[in-house]
């Protein structure tokens, strides 16, 4: 559906307009249109595309969700795809925003997310000296808003990692801990799939061959790139921490299994000695002096108990029990 459609000139908002008013405002000099769509269907995207003569291939990409983050150049039009990553309960929801930018228009199509960009529009309108730079500044503002929303997600993942690490050493290792670690690893991977391609694409907007449309705003896009670079560095540290935690967790599992095996081996050794004595005196040979001795039976029990107790003390001292 259409969220907002407005015309701007010289950093000032001229009016909120309807789609059928777009051709009239496009004909005015130094005027650009900013259209925001949410969960738009094929007909709506094609209709808006005809008003601005949007590239056919880019329009097809906007109709299909789950595109890889990218920034493509189609003549005088830039087409950007960004992933919107947000926390919903204990899970991560991945939405998408597709942005078309030309010399006199900006069209954003938002899908699979409830978080809008009304705050971005308000911010731009409150800074007319920047909005005067035209559609390129709107693209920067949208990209900056998307990237800024990655930081709370990253902080939540770091907090979860610290909680799991504390759990590893505060209680016995369990299957739940391993499952949480792998779930956290998947979440970091989800965020990484949104950040890394966008970082690579943003690098095309400053230095070297830069599209004419954004040439005057290279410093702004370099700032977005720096933010993405910081997020990337933090994610790498977080991934290493998770890998280390998994290794420690598996080592603790192995250690606990070894402790159990030592206890079982110790008790098996104790019972093996006792069983040996019981087996010897239970062979029923006729010529066994102990069988005719009055205290033979108590003596046999005493030997078995004392041998078992001696082995128990020895294993206990060695740390096996």
Structural key phrases:
single chain, 321 residues, alpha+beta, Beta Polymerase, domain 2, Methane Monooxygenase Hydroxylase, Chain G, domain 1, 10 helices, rod-shaped
Strand segment count = 7
Mean pLDDT equals 85
Rounded to an integer in angstroms, the radius of gyration calculated over CA atoms is: 35 Å
| Assigned CATH superfamily of the domain at 1-132 | CorA soluble domain-like
Query: Strand share of the residues?
Result: 15-25%
What does this structure look like?
The chain has 321 residues and is an alpha+beta fold. Among the domains are: 1-132, Beta Polymerase, domain 2; 259-317, Magnesium transport protein CorA, transmembrane region (Methane Monooxygenase Hydroxylase, Chain G, domain 1), CATH 1.20.58.340. The protein contains ten helices and seven strands. The protein has helices spanning 22-26, 42-52, 56-63, 118-125, 128-131, 135-148, 150-170, 175-202, 218-281, 296-317, and strands at residues 2-9, 12-16, 31-38, 70-74, 77-88, 91-102, 105-111. A seven-stranded mixed sheet has the order 2-1-3-7-6-5-4, with helices on both faces. A hairpin with a 2-residue loop joins strand 5 (77-88) and strand 6 (91-102). Helix 7 packs antiparallel against helix 8 and helix 7 (150-170) packs parallel to helix 9. The longest helix has 64 residues, at 218-281. It starts with a strand and ends with a helix. The mean pLDDT is 85.
């Amino acid at each position: 559906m259409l969220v907002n459609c407005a015309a701007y000139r010289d950093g000032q908002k001229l009016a909120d307009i309807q789609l059928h008013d777009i051709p009239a405002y496009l004909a005015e000099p130094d005027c650009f249109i900013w259209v925001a769509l949410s969960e738009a269907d094929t007909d709506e995207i094609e209709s808006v595309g005809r008003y601005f003569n949007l590239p056919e291939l880019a329009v097809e990409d906007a109709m299909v969700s789950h595109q890889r983050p990218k920034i493509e150049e189609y003549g005088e039009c830039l087409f950007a795809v960004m992933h919107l990553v947000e926390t919903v309960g204990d899970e991560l929801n991945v939405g998408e925003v597709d942005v078309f930018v030309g010399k006199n228009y900006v069209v954003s199509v938002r899908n699979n997310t409830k978080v809008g960009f009304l705050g971005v529009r308000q911010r731009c309108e409150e800074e007319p000296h920047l909005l005067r730079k035209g559609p390129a500044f709107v693209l920067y503002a949208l990209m900056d808003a998307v990237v800024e929303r990655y930081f709370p997600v990253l902080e939540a993942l770091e907090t979860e990692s610290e909680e799991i690490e504390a759990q590893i050493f505060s209680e016995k290792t369990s299957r739940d801990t391993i499952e949480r670690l792998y779930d956290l690893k998947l979440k970091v991977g989800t965020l990484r799939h949104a950040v890394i391609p966008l970082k690579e694409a943003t690098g095309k907007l400053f230095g070297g061959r830069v599209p004419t449309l954004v040439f005057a705003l290279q410093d702004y896009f370099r700032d977005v790139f720096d933010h993405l670079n910081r997020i990337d560095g933090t994610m790498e540290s977080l991934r290493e921490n998770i890998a280390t935690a998994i290794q420690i967790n598996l080592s603790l599992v192995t250690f606990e299994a070894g402790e159990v095996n030592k206890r079982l081996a110790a008790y098996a050794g104790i019972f093996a000695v006792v069983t040996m004595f019981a087996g010897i005196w239970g062979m029923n040979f006729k010529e066994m002096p102990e069988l005719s001795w009055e205290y033979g039976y108590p003596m046999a029990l005493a030997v078995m108990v004392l041998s078992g107790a001696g082995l128990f003390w020895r294993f206990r001292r060695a740390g096996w029990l």
